[in-house]
Amino acid sequence: MAIVVNMPRLSDTMEEGTVAAWLKKVGDKIEEGDILAEIETDKATMEFESFNEGTLLHIGVQEGETTKVDELLAIIGDEGEDISALLSGGDASAEATEEKTEEAAPVVEETKDEAPASAELPEGVIVVTMPRLSDTMEEGTVATWLKKVGDSVEEGDILAEIETDKATMEFESFQSGTLLYVGLQEGDSAKVDELLAIIGPAGTDVSGVASSFSSAVPAAKVDAPKTEAKKEAPKSAPASATPSKPKTSAPAPTPVTADGRVHVSPLAKKLAEDKGINLTKIQGSGENGRIVKRDIENYEPATSAAAAGKFVPSGQEDFDEVDNSQMRKAIAKALTNSKFSAPHYYLSVEFDMENAMSFRTQFNSIPDTKISYNDIVVKACALALKQHPQVNSQWFADKMRLNNHVHIGVAVAVPDGLVVPVVKFANEQSLPQIGAAVRELAGKAKNKKLTPDEMQGSTFTVSNLGMFGIDTFTSIINQPNSAILSVGNIVEKPVVKNGQIVVGHTMKLSLACDHRTVDGATGALFLQTLKGYIENPVTMLV
């Protein structure tokens, strides 16, 4: 059924938008997450991505034209679908609009609820709500406030660091004024479009605005930020296995940067002082190398490998509690859905790695060239998938999509969980290109610099734990993929060759398949093709 896409509200003050450019044209196929158009708001020109799949059937606003928020922007549906009723405003239009309204309920309902309060807003006062910083974000957690109540705020100032399901991102203010009220303390979470802060002229009483915006936020909380913030900072200390040092400990030395100041968030600085951590020893992962909360929590001194765990008296029960991050919640939701919706089965094989080891040694003898065994596996999978599109498929309720392109997701472990950046068109890339792409994506993943586009669109996934000494394991499919390959360690062991027992090197792999799309024989044939490439990697150069 066709879906009506309305002009989105891309900023809290946006009332109308202008289409700067259409990145899709009528008749184009649309995937969830594709960029439909660039929309010029009252603040900036922003990319607007689709939350639906189908064919772009109609464009309601041409490039350069302007329309109000929630007015018809485009229609997406099945190819060839009749949308005349939608364009003429018939019953079908009402049904489609109702469906779209349900999808965008938080924005529409919030606007309606705010109407009475907006009329009573003191002059110059702006309510700032929790922004949607990723296409899958449903709620956000305030990692750090960079401004406190009473501070002057300029347009473009960073208000806070918001932790989403994908990354921790800086959120900047679109208004100037004084920060009058903070609706969430550091570590607190809220749904998208819920009250985050209030900005306005200094001295304005906004207690009534805060209480009327959401009944869950009492007006008395207006005076609480300073007190609660002091209680909040030590709360993160149990996340470390090392007991916090008392506040009387000497403050951490201050590193001097090129601009003469420390690039560190206030909360990170406070945690570093509490833990006695020297900030000069830490490489920041925030914007422009800024040290943020997670850098302090994840910091391990060089001698930590030999250090003992947290001391607990004999016979005493003890535990630390760590709040689930947005990334951890997203991982739990996605993997639970995959495990209990897709009928998994597993195929295990063991490959002879002697030729692969010799091939890698010779290949890396080329100046300025370095490939890993994982790069060889990724390349081999990409070539094998071209011959077995059924394994390179995706399952939908009413159809199966056999992908003719190969985008391989490579699982990367990060402190907060697991992310899967994607090597696009892996079958068309050389081994050095794949190696460079994987290293770049892995580095971005560990520094939380991956963009949404770099984590979307995979058609197959590779998960490698061989570098951790794991011989064999099975993985959960990264939907909507139909399969994921688990790669183990290369093991030296006795093997039989030509009737003789000799020393050999083997590697075990396990292919998890979705039985709805990949039958056992199909998966087995894919592994046979993969075996040919990995055991004779020179064939990948042909």
TrEMBL record:
Residues 235-251 have a biased composition (Low complexity). Its EC number is 2.3.1.-. One of its GO terms (cellular component) is pyruvate dehydrogenase complex. One of its GO terms (biological process) is pyruvate decarboxylation to acetyl-CoA. Residues 2-77, 125-200 form the Lipoyl-binding domain. It comes from the Bacteria. Residues 263-300 form the Peripheral subunit-binding (PSBD) domain. Belongs to the 2-oxoacid dehydrogenase family. InterPro entries: 2-oxoA_DH_lipoyl-BS, 2-oxoacid_DH_actylTfrase, Biotin_lipoyl, CAT-like_dom_sf, E2/Pdx1, E3-bd_dom_sf, PSBD, Single_hybrid_motif. The pyruvate dehydrogenase complex catalyzes the overall conversion of pyruvate to acetyl-CoA and CO(2). It contains multiple copies of three enzymatic components: pyruvate dehydrogenase (E1), dihydrolipoamide acetyltransferase (E2) and lipoamide dehydrogenase (E3). Residues 90-118, 217-261 are annotated as: Disordered. Keywords: Acyltransferase, Lipoyl, Pyruvate, Transferase. PANTHER family: DIHYDROLIPOAMIDE ACETYL/SUCCINYL-TRANSFERASE-RELATED (PTHR23151), DIHYDROLIPOYLLYSINE-RESIDUE ACETYLTRANSFERASE COMPONENT OF PYRUVATE DEHYDROGENASE COMPLEX, MITOCHONDRIAL-RELATED (PTHR23151:SF90). The lineage of its organism: Bacteria, Pseudomonadati, Bacteroidota, Flavobacteriia, Flavobacteriales. It comes from Algibacter lectus. Residues 97-115, 223-234 have a biased composition (Basic and acidic residues). It is an enzyme of class 2 (transferase). GO terms for molecular function: acyltransferase activity. This is Dihydrolipoamide acetyltransferase component of pyruvate dehydrogenase complex. Its cofactor is (R)-lipoate.
